[in-house]
Hints:
The chain is of the alpha+beta class. Helix content is about 65%, strand content about 10%. It has 11 helices and 5 strands; from the N terminus they run αααααααααβαββαββ. Helix 5 crosses helix 6 and helix 9 (about 255-260) runs parallel beside helix 10. The chain is elongated and about 125 Å long. The model has no long low-confidence stretch (mean pLDDT about 80).
Amino acid sequence: MIRGRFGVPDGVVDAAIAVGVTGALLLTGASGEHAAGGLDLLGLGLLAAGGLALAARRRAPVAVLVATGLCAVGHQTAGFDVPAVSYLFAVYAAVRAGHRAVTVAVSVLVLAALPVAALASGLHDTGEAFARARGALELAWLVAAGAAGEALRQAERRADEAERTREETARRRADEERLRIARELHDSLTHQISIIKVQSEVAVHVARRRGERVPEALLAIQEAGREATRELRATLEALRDDDTAPPRGLADVPELVARARLAGLDATLTIEGERSGVPVAVDRTVYRIVQESLTNIARHADAATASVRIDCRPDALTVRVDDDGKAVPGAVPTPGTGLLGMRERVAALGGGLSARPRTEGGFTVRARLPLERTS
């Protein structure tokens, strides 16, 4: 339920206004002068109906406008000379909702019908009928109600535009900062890491051609250079991602598994449950988890098979990636940037991720992402 400025639900506020207006109209109608007879109950009923209709003024402003206008004309016809307060509230609500043309048209009809209603109530003097109509709905009151609704509508529109402008400015600044960081990383690190990688590979190649034993430290430098190049490339791609490309999600996971098969990994995919309605953030995170897991298997696991299982349930989505690689129970996985990135993505969505060796050998990555579906 939508809440207003002071934390009170709008529906409660509307109901309170409707009850208050209804009480005031009934009290005025019962205590005022009106034609006695069988129309008393009808007039009081129309007064009550016009006031209670205001409870729906936000949900159906045009319908409430028409209903309160008919009630105002009806209780005038029944002989109840009561100001059309409920209709003024309806005019305010309709103009605030943006229905200005409809409000003007209905108001013209109501203003024209009220003198006729006064004559129908038993008055024979046309001047007195117009005077009673003006008393029920003064043109100044009508203009004031419409002006108040339009002023608030414009204020809300300006506030919404200001909020959108702030969000767009914040996103633009974040994009500029991300691209600046990417440029700095590229300029300051890429060249040096490339030199380290090339020089270490040349040294290893030369040592092997001479039949010399390659020092373990040199092999470690070579592998570190390769890994740093891959990680830096992935980081720069993430930083430069400006979301202009279509987002990757659950629908693209089969493509990841197919690419893993082409690379020589016997990979399988199982997706169960209803996939429609999965939030975009969860959808993209699932893709990134599977992508990073399969990449790590190809690079580090020395595995022959891998399985990807995705379970979509009403409250949560679970992703599990298993392999039969060289990881052994009890071994502590090295927390690389890929694993840290997965943890951060999952934690940002309020979920949890575990990555550890399996009891039967191999490695398991399991993530649980809570779902907040909108009906």
